[in-house]
Each structure stands twice: as structure tokens, then as C-alpha cells.
Design goal:
One of its GO terms (cellular component) is cytosol. The chain has about 150 residues and is an alpha+beta fold. The protein folds into two domains: about 40 residues, Arc Repressor Mutant, subunit A (Orthogonal Bundle); about 80 residues, Alpha-Beta Plaits (2-Layer Sandwich), CATH 3.30.70.920. It contains five helices and four strands.
């Protein structure tokens, strides 16, 4: 879907505050309510807007440790990757997972209460996945920037 300037403006506003009423959104964009609602609905139907969420402060809910885990798989086949993906998709601690090109096959991002939880995650979950050959973990010392809004 090719986005026009009005749609981009609507999306920018919704990324900052998805609780805006259609009236408030229309006022900020400079259009009447019905056309504004139609634009939003069109973007929802097209999958541009996937949903609406509440963004939490992870440290205030006890998830102060951010860990990146690089995973190298034993084999490179569709079956191995599919099995690995299914296991990872079912793990709540993994908030992001990417398949990569290069020496690392997958990159996992975790939010955990602390290093003890990382140890438990590794021993009780990750290292029990038979498709994994090698893992390397990096613990973030501090968060410098973490944005959820896409640059439109």
C-alpha cells in the first residue's frame, strides 16, 4: 500500500498515542471525522496498522536485563529452521527473533529479571533445543535508545 502524506501523518500521531479518539485524530490532521475514520480503517484492513498496544516500562515490571543471544544451528535445512522457530515462538522470554545472514543463524532478544534468569533460560530452555550448535550472549549495560515508532 502506497501511503500519502495524510496517512503518514495519521500513522505518526497514532504511533505516539494510539488512544486518540477519531475526533481528536481528525482535528490534528485537519479533516472531518468520517474521512479520517475511513483512512484509519483502510490502513487496518490493509495490515499497515497491525494492532494497538500499551507500551510498558520493562524495568518497572521487573524485566531490567536485556540480553541478545546469537545462535548457530547444527544444520542449515528448512526442517531444522522450522523446528527451531516453533520452539522459539512458544517462549515468552524471547521478545524478538531474527534469521540472519553470516556466521550467526538467528539473533534472539530477551527481557529478563536478572542474570540468574539468563542462566535458567540457557540451561532449562535454549541449550535443550537439539538444533542448536553454539550460542553467544551479550548483556546490555544500559539502554541508550529504544523506539517503537517507525520513521515515516
Amino acid at each position: 500500500m502506497k501511503l500519502d502524506q495524510t496517512q503518514r501523518h495519521i500513522l505518526t500521531l497514532l504511533q505516539k498515542d494510539s488512544t486518540l479518539s477519531t475526533q481528536a485524530l481528525a482535528d490534528k490532521v485537519g479533516m472531518s471525522v468520517s474521512p479520517c475514520w475511513r483512512r484509519v480503517k483502510e490502513m487496518e484492513d490493509a495490515g499497515v496498522i497491525r494492532g494497538y498496544v500499551a507500551l510498558l516500562d520493562r524495568t518497572k515490571v521487573g524485566l531490567g536485563t536485556c540480553v541478545w543471544v546469537r545462535v548457530k544451528l547444527k544444520q542449515h535445512s528448512v526442517e531444522v529452521l522450522d523446528r527451531f522457530e516453533q520452539v522459539v515462538k512458544g517462549c515468552d522470554q524471547v521478545v524478538e527473533c531474527y534469521e540472519l545472514l553470516g556466521e550467526t543463524d538467528c539473533l534472539l532478544k530477551l527481557y529478563l529479571p536478572g542474570l540468574e534468569a539468563l542462566s535458567a533460560f540457557m540451561h532449562d530452555f535454549l541449550l535443550k533445543i537439539p538444533e542448536i550448535d553454539v550460542t553467544h550472549s551479550s548483556v546490555a549495560l544500559r539502554e541508550i535508545k529504544n523506539e517503537t515508532a517507525l520513521p515515516l
